[in-house]
Amino acid sequence: LTTIFIHSGISSQIHELMLKDRPRQEAYYNAIMKNKELFKDKIVLDVGAGTGILSAFCAKAGARLVYAVEASNLATKVALELIEENGLTEIVKVIYSTIEEFVLPTTAEKVDIIVSEWMGFYLLHEGMLDSVLYARDHFLKPDGQMFPSECTIFVAPCSVPSLFDYWQNIDGVNMQRFASKLRSQKSSRPEITHLKPNDLLHEGIVFHWMNLLDVNARDLDEICFKEVVATQSAGKHQGFCIWFDVRFPGEESVTLSTSPLAPETHWKQCVVVLPEENCEQLEEKSPIAFKILMKRNPNDARKYNLEVELLDPNEEEHPVPCSCHMTKCILTEAHLKMMDTS
């Protein structure tokens, strides 16, 4: 009994956290309720339905039938209560199952829309995208819709004041040696934290983009990205910040962003902190060359390992145009401007 109680408490806390995440809630609500014409008389599959709130949105938007598939016993009970409480039992069918074990009724047609809140940290880590893609391949009609439909991962060089500057003066006491030990402990894994907009040294560049209607799970086993960026503001380069946006289809297009420039979500941002010897004060337009490898953990397919490597900007090919202060880029940019005016 004790074990069940503890697990139930943890699960409830997770769902409470997500339900109190207003940017998350508002994005899904607006994406569904502002595009009712897409849901009217349609069949919807909610993958990982949790408390059932997204299924309720779909029913209220006019869906004819909603399969709310959830593998958690606790969440299934909560979902059943939510659907009953809101008088939606004729439309929403709560099913206690993994999506991989779910089977459509023998005479049932495939679904028109798949809805899911599957995203994990830096989009893929501890997420459930593989299950959503399984549902797409087995249950979605050829002309069906995915909610969300597009995903973009961004990366930007950044400062990390919470692990560096904060410890310079704690009520008049310098604790930088303690901070150094703290950073050493955290260096083996990414830090999930919320950065402020002015912590970014760049607005962010696209690390990876995908369309959920055609992406293949095997394409996500390994994602490698190499780039040279010019800082857009001066500051201390202490790490790389990674976040994601997801976009929903419809005439009233909605985007849910986890950027430091957007309202804070429970996903926050993922920060890869640099070793102290690689941290440096940079001027505006300083070039930063780097490579990021996001690789699926061989022991747990839902988890991803992140590797960041700093490269020599003198040896790497820069984008054209490049706004950094290196001579070759200044000359190239000037030449391009001359061509535009001629």
UniProtKB/TrEMBL annotation:
Catalysed reaction(s)?
L-arginyl-[protein] + S-adenosyl-L-methionine = N(omega)-methyl-L-arginyl-[protein] + S-adenosyl-L-homocysteine + H(+)
Can you tell me where the transmembrane regions are?
Answer: none
Instruction: Look up keyword Lipid metabolism and say if it applies.
Output: no
Top EC class per UniProt? transferase
Nucleus keyword on record:
no
**Superkingdom assignment:** Eukaryota
Under the heading Gene3D superfamilies, the entry gives: Hnrnp arginine n-methyltransferase1, Vaccinia Virus protein VP39
The record's keywords, sorted A to Z, are: Methyltransferase, S-adenosyl-L-methionine, Transferase
EC number in record = 2.1.1.319
Q: Which GO cellular component terms, listed alphabetically, does the Swiss-Prot or TrEMBL entry include? A: nucleus
Which GO annotations describe the biological process of this protein? methylation
Any one Gene Ontology MF annotation carried by this entry is: protein-arginine omega-N monomethyltransferase activity
Q: Which InterPro entries match?
A: Arg_MeTrfase, PRMT_dom, SAM-dependent_MTases_sf
Database matches in SUPFAM superfamilies: S-adenosyl-L-methionine-dependent methyltransferases (SSF53335)
The family database entries (PROSITE patterns) matched by this protein are listed as:
SAM_MT_PRMT (PS51678)
Name of this chain's protein: type I protein arginine methyltransferase
